[in-house]
Write a structure and sequence with these properties.
Layout: E1 3-8, H1 13-24, E2 28-34, E3 48-51, H2 58-68, E4 71-74, H3 81-94, E5 97-100, H4 106-118, E6 124-131, H5 141-153, E7 171-173, E8 176-182, E9 188-196, E10 199-207, H6 214-223, E11 229-232, H7 235-238, H8 240-243
Parallel strand pairs: 1-2, 1-3, 3-4, 4-5, 5-11, 6-8
Antiparallel strand pairs: 6-9, 7-8, 9-10
Helix pairs in contact: 1-6, 4-5
Protein backbone atom coordinates (compact mmCIF):
# COMPACT_ATOMS: atom_id res chain seq x y z
CA UNK A 1 0.00 0.00 0.00
CA UNK A 2 1.31 3.44 -0.91
CA UNK A 3 2.10 6.11 1.68
CA UNK A 4 -0.28 9.05 1.28
CA UNK A 5 1.45 12.45 1.16
CA UNK A 6 0.04 15.97 1.50
CA UNK A 7 2.15 18.92 0.36
CA UNK A 8 1.72 22.33 1.99
CA UNK A 9 2.90 25.13 -0.27
CA UNK A 10 2.16 22.99 -3.32
CA UNK A 11 1.68 25.95 -5.65
CA UNK A 12 5.19 27.32 -5.10
CA UNK A 13 8.35 26.46 -7.03
CA UNK A 14 9.61 23.89 -4.56
CA UNK A 15 6.11 22.67 -3.71
CA UNK A 16 5.34 21.92 -7.35
CA UNK A 17 8.56 19.94 -7.61
CA UNK A 18 7.80 18.02 -4.40
CA UNK A 19 4.42 17.03 -5.85
CA UNK A 20 6.13 15.77 -9.01
CA UNK A 21 8.64 13.71 -7.04
CA UNK A 22 5.92 12.20 -4.83
CA UNK A 23 3.99 11.11 -7.92
CA UNK A 24 7.15 9.64 -9.48
CA UNK A 25 8.43 7.78 -6.39
CA UNK A 26 7.33 4.18 -5.97
CA UNK A 27 5.43 3.50 -2.76
CA UNK A 28 4.03 7.04 -2.39
CA UNK A 29 0.92 8.78 -3.66
CA UNK A 30 -0.04 12.45 -3.64
CA UNK A 31 -3.08 12.81 -1.40
CA UNK A 32 -3.49 16.62 -1.27
CA UNK A 33 -2.03 19.81 -2.71
CA UNK A 34 -2.36 22.48 -0.01
CA UNK A 35 -2.05 26.25 -0.28
CA UNK A 36 -2.85 29.32 1.80
CA UNK A 37 -6.44 28.98 0.56
CA UNK A 38 -6.81 25.44 1.95
CA UNK A 39 -8.80 24.82 5.12
CA UNK A 40 -7.05 23.40 8.22
CA UNK A 41 -8.87 20.10 7.67
CA UNK A 42 -7.53 19.61 4.15
CA UNK A 43 -4.88 16.91 3.89
CA UNK A 44 -5.81 15.37 7.24
CA UNK A 45 -6.04 11.90 5.71
CA UNK A 46 -2.39 11.82 4.62
CA UNK A 47 0.20 9.87 6.57
CA UNK A 48 3.03 12.30 5.69
CA UNK A 49 2.93 16.07 5.39
CA UNK A 50 5.64 17.89 3.44
CA UNK A 51 5.75 21.58 4.42
CA UNK A 52 7.39 23.91 1.92
CA UNK A 53 5.16 26.89 2.64
CA UNK A 54 6.24 30.16 4.32
CA UNK A 55 8.52 30.74 7.35
CA UNK A 56 5.77 32.48 9.31
CA UNK A 57 3.16 29.81 8.63
CA UNK A 58 5.40 26.76 9.02
CA UNK A 59 5.36 26.28 12.84
CA UNK A 60 1.55 26.19 12.98
CA UNK A 61 1.36 23.83 10.00
CA UNK A 62 3.88 21.46 11.57
CA UNK A 63 2.17 21.50 14.97
CA UNK A 64 -1.22 20.77 13.39
CA UNK A 65 0.23 17.84 11.45
CA UNK A 66 1.89 16.38 14.54
CA UNK A 67 -1.32 16.71 16.52
CA UNK A 68 -2.98 14.59 13.82
CA UNK A 69 -0.28 11.92 14.12
CA UNK A 70 1.25 12.71 10.74
CA UNK A 71 4.95 12.39 10.02
CA UNK A 72 6.44 15.64 8.75
CA UNK A 73 9.13 16.74 6.31
CA UNK A 74 9.94 20.46 6.60
CA UNK A 75 11.63 22.20 3.69
CA UNK A 76 10.63 25.70 4.77
CA UNK A 77 13.29 28.18 5.93
CA UNK A 78 13.19 29.90 9.30
CA UNK A 79 13.79 26.93 11.59
CA UNK A 80 16.54 28.38 13.77
CA UNK A 81 18.42 26.44 16.45
CA UNK A 82 16.06 27.88 19.08
CA UNK A 83 12.96 26.86 17.16
CA UNK A 84 14.41 23.38 16.51
CA UNK A 85 15.13 22.95 20.22
CA UNK A 86 11.47 23.64 21.00
CA UNK A 87 10.39 21.15 18.35
CA UNK A 88 12.74 18.51 19.74
CA UNK A 89 11.27 18.98 23.22
CA UNK A 90 7.75 18.68 21.83
CA UNK A 91 8.60 15.42 20.06
CA UNK A 92 10.32 13.99 23.15
CA UNK A 93 7.23 14.68 25.25
CA UNK A 94 4.49 13.68 22.80
CA UNK A 95 6.18 11.50 20.17
CA UNK A 96 6.20 11.89 16.42
CA UNK A 97 8.72 12.26 13.64
CA UNK A 98 9.97 15.38 11.86
CA UNK A 99 12.72 15.71 9.27
CA UNK A 100 13.84 19.33 8.78
CA UNK A 101 15.74 19.83 5.53
CA UNK A 102 17.44 23.21 5.01
CA UNK A 103 18.38 22.17 1.47
CA UNK A 104 17.32 19.14 -0.60
CA UNK A 105 20.36 19.38 -2.90
CA UNK A 106 22.86 16.57 -2.35
CA UNK A 107 25.72 18.85 -3.44
CA UNK A 108 24.69 21.49 -0.95
CA UNK A 109 24.58 18.96 1.87
CA UNK A 110 28.07 17.73 0.97
CA UNK A 111 29.33 21.33 0.72
CA UNK A 112 28.08 22.08 4.22
CA UNK A 113 29.70 18.88 5.49
CA UNK A 114 33.03 19.93 3.99
CA UNK A 115 32.68 23.39 5.53
CA UNK A 116 32.05 21.77 8.89
CA UNK A 117 35.30 19.82 8.55
CA UNK A 118 37.26 22.97 7.70
CA UNK A 119 35.65 25.08 10.42
CA UNK A 120 38.07 24.37 13.29
CA UNK A 121 41.20 25.06 11.21
CA UNK A 122 40.70 28.73 10.33
CA UNK A 123 40.17 31.81 12.49
CA UNK A 124 38.23 33.78 9.85
CA UNK A 125 35.01 32.40 8.36
CA UNK A 126 32.36 34.18 6.28
CA UNK A 127 29.41 32.93 4.26
CA UNK A 128 28.02 34.50 1.08
CA UNK A 129 24.72 33.12 -0.21
CA UNK A 130 22.75 34.16 -3.28
CA UNK A 131 19.22 33.26 -4.35
CA UNK A 132 16.57 34.34 -6.84
CA UNK A 133 14.80 37.66 -6.06
CA UNK A 134 11.54 35.94 -5.06
CA UNK A 135 13.01 34.24 -1.99
CA UNK A 136 11.24 35.87 0.95
CA UNK A 137 13.76 35.23 3.73
CA UNK A 138 17.40 36.01 4.35
CA UNK A 139 19.79 34.61 5.33
CA UNK A 140 18.80 31.33 3.73
CA UNK A 141 18.08 28.32 5.91
CA UNK A 142 21.07 26.58 4.34
CA UNK A 143 23.42 29.43 5.32
CA UNK A 144 22.03 29.49 8.87
CA UNK A 145 22.49 25.73 9.23
CA UNK A 146 26.00 25.91 7.76
CA UNK A 147 27.00 28.66 10.21
CA UNK A 148 25.56 26.73 13.16
CA UNK A 149 27.40 23.53 12.22
CA UNK A 150 30.70 25.36 11.73
CA UNK A 151 30.29 27.04 15.12
CA UNK A 152 29.50 23.68 16.71
CA UNK A 153 32.61 22.12 15.15
CA UNK A 154 34.73 24.96 16.59
CA UNK A 155 33.63 23.90 20.09
CA UNK A 156 33.11 27.40 21.41
CA UNK A 157 36.15 29.04 19.81
CA UNK A 158 35.04 32.40 18.42
CA UNK A 159 35.45 33.34 14.76
CA UNK A 160 37.60 36.38 13.99
CA UNK A 161 34.98 38.80 12.60
CA UNK A 162 36.32 42.39 12.84
CA UNK A 163 33.85 45.32 12.75
CA UNK A 164 30.93 42.88 12.92
CA UNK A 165 28.72 45.68 14.27
CA UNK A 166 28.76 47.43 10.88
CA UNK A 167 25.65 46.62 8.80
CA UNK A 168 27.70 46.05 5.66
CA UNK A 169 29.55 43.21 7.43
CA UNK A 170 26.50 40.97 7.18
CA UNK A 171 24.32 39.35 9.82
CA UNK A 172 26.06 37.36 12.54
CA UNK A 173 24.74 33.81 12.72
CA UNK A 174 26.34 31.72 15.46
CA UNK A 175 29.11 34.34 15.44
CA UNK A 176 29.78 33.99 11.69
CA UNK A 177 29.09 36.85 9.22
CA UNK A 178 26.54 35.84 6.59
CA UNK A 179 25.93 37.98 3.48
CA UNK A 180 22.76 37.52 1.40
CA UNK A 181 22.32 38.44 -2.26
CA UNK A 182 18.99 38.34 -4.12
CA UNK A 183 19.57 38.52 -7.87
CA UNK A 184 17.71 37.79 -11.09
CA UNK A 185 19.37 34.97 -12.99
CA UNK A 186 20.36 33.09 -9.83
CA UNK A 187 18.75 29.90 -8.53
CA UNK A 188 20.94 29.33 -5.47
CA UNK A 189 24.61 29.63 -4.57
CA UNK A 190 26.60 29.43 -1.36
CA UNK A 191 30.26 30.21 -0.71
CA UNK A 192 31.91 29.52 2.63
CA UNK A 193 35.23 31.35 2.79
CA UNK A 194 37.91 30.45 5.31
CA UNK A 195 40.86 32.81 5.78
CA UNK A 196 44.25 31.97 7.26
CA UNK A 197 47.79 33.33 7.08
CA UNK A 198 48.69 33.44 3.38
CA UNK A 199 45.69 31.45 2.12
CA UNK A 200 41.93 31.35 1.57
CA UNK A 201 39.85 28.19 1.24
CA UNK A 202 36.45 28.53 -0.46
CA UNK A 203 33.78 25.82 -0.43
CA UNK A 204 31.30 26.69 -3.20
CA UNK A 205 28.07 25.10 -4.31
CA UNK A 206 25.98 26.27 -7.28
CA UNK A 207 22.41 25.21 -8.00
CA UNK A 208 21.58 25.70 -11.68
CA UNK A 209 18.01 24.36 -11.67
CA UNK A 210 15.44 22.90 -9.30
CA UNK A 211 16.29 19.45 -10.66
CA UNK A 212 19.12 19.48 -8.11
CA UNK A 213 16.50 18.90 -5.38
CA UNK A 214 14.86 15.79 -6.82
CA UNK A 215 17.17 13.15 -5.36
CA UNK A 216 17.10 14.74 -1.91
CA UNK A 217 13.30 14.97 -1.88
CA UNK A 218 13.02 11.30 -2.83
CA UNK A 219 15.54 10.34 -0.13
CA UNK A 220 13.57 12.30 2.47
CA UNK A 221 10.32 10.58 1.46
CA UNK A 222 11.88 7.14 1.82
CA UNK A 223 13.37 8.06 5.20
CA UNK A 224 10.38 9.57 7.01
CA UNK A 225 8.07 6.50 7.33
CA UNK A 226 10.52 4.79 9.73
CA UNK A 227 11.92 7.92 11.39
CA UNK A 228 11.50 8.84 15.06
CA UNK A 229 12.01 12.15 16.83
CA UNK A 230 13.75 15.08 15.17
CA UNK A 231 16.24 14.76 12.32
CA UNK A 232 17.87 17.91 10.94
CA UNK A 233 19.40 17.88 7.47
CA UNK A 234 19.94 15.13 4.96
CA UNK A 235 23.20 14.19 6.70
CA UNK A 236 21.51 11.46 8.72
CA UNK A 237 19.37 10.39 5.77
CA UNK A 238 22.45 9.90 3.57
CA UNK A 239 24.65 8.45 6.33
CA UNK A 240 27.04 11.43 6.38
CA UNK A 241 26.69 11.73 10.15
CA UNK A 242 28.41 8.35 10.48
CA UNK A 243 31.10 9.08 7.90
CA UNK A 244 31.90 12.54 9.30
CA UNK A 245 31.05 11.88 12.93
CA UNK A 246 34.57 12.70 14.06
CA UNK A 247 34.56 16.10 12.40
CA UNK A 248 32.34 17.77 14.97
Amino acid sequence: MSVRVAVSGASGRLGSLVCEVVEQTAGFELDARLSSASSPEDGAGAEVLVDVSHPEASPEIVERALARGQRVIVGTSGWSAERLAGLETRLAEHGGAVLVVPNFSLGSVLGTALARIAGPFFDAVEIVEAHHPHKVDSPSGTAVRTAELIAEARDGRAVDAPFAEQPARGELVAGIPVHSLRLAGVVAKQEVRFGGPGEVLTVTHDTHSNDAYRAGIAAALRFIPEATGLTVGLDGVLGLDRVLGGAA
